């Protein structure tokens, strides 16, 4: 499967703050480093600058091999940030960037923002009437400046099909891995996450605000219990059983997991079961009933219900996007 060109937009003419490099590096690492053993061809990354670096530009300036013409023909366009002046001082987003984003979207590109890049998408009108997010420190400004955007400051990222937005910093990595998952499947995304030494999948609905008061040590036994649960998803797991294995009360287990992940134990389990089902659908030809059983979703009907609700397509349609020459019984 060809995943095409990813155009990564860098506002060269107005300079980058040092911390903006984080989001740029995330996208460049995920989409710009070939992974031929995972998928071949990989993405074709174009780093595209807005204007020319100015000698007196604040922050850092980058030389880029492409200008905004690099957006032409791109399947995906990513704006990781806009200059600080566009966020804090109300300076307009460069008009040539706004026009280029509109043109790319009109020609079928998937348009993505990380952190303050949402201000550029909003200026282009691509977020009008849509739910969107940005870093929680800037969502109030985004909502005030663009009241037509349905700003949600409580989530890591929002996937609205052909327009996606994320919060800042590590949430940008979550969205980039989500794109890989959409394009190349759960197995490829999981393996890439492992190479990046990050969690394989954090759902977009997980909270931006995570209480870090969970002890840094493993004295509560939470990590081993979660690893055990992932290895036994075919079982009917309960909060009581997981709490017992962690040697805490169900109420304490609920609180610890909520603090650590921003989600409830039941939602965490459902996310793990769906991720397992995705991997099985991609890598085997097992029946839907078998996939449902091995992932702990019970029946094919239950698998279909949750898949449609969470993934947006049926299990059958998802499998057809990842054809494999496996036998129906063994998956080999």
UniProtKB/TrEMBL annotation:
Record keywords: DNA-binding, Transcription, Transcription regulation
Entries under CDD domains matching the protein: GATase1_AraC_1
InterPro entries reported for this sequence: Class_I_gatase-like, DJ-1/PfpI, Homeodomain-like_sf, HTH_AraC, HTH_AraC-typ_CS, INH-QAR
Organism domain of life: Bacteria
Gene3D superfamilies: 3.40.50.880, Homeodomain-like
Domain HTH araC/xylS-type intervals: 223-321
PANTHER family: ARAC-FAMILY TRANSCRIPTIONAL REGULATOR, HTH-TYPE TRANSCRIPTIONAL REGULATOR RV1931C
UniProt-recorded name of the protein: Helix-turn-helix domain-containing protein
Organism (species): Amycolatopsis plumensis
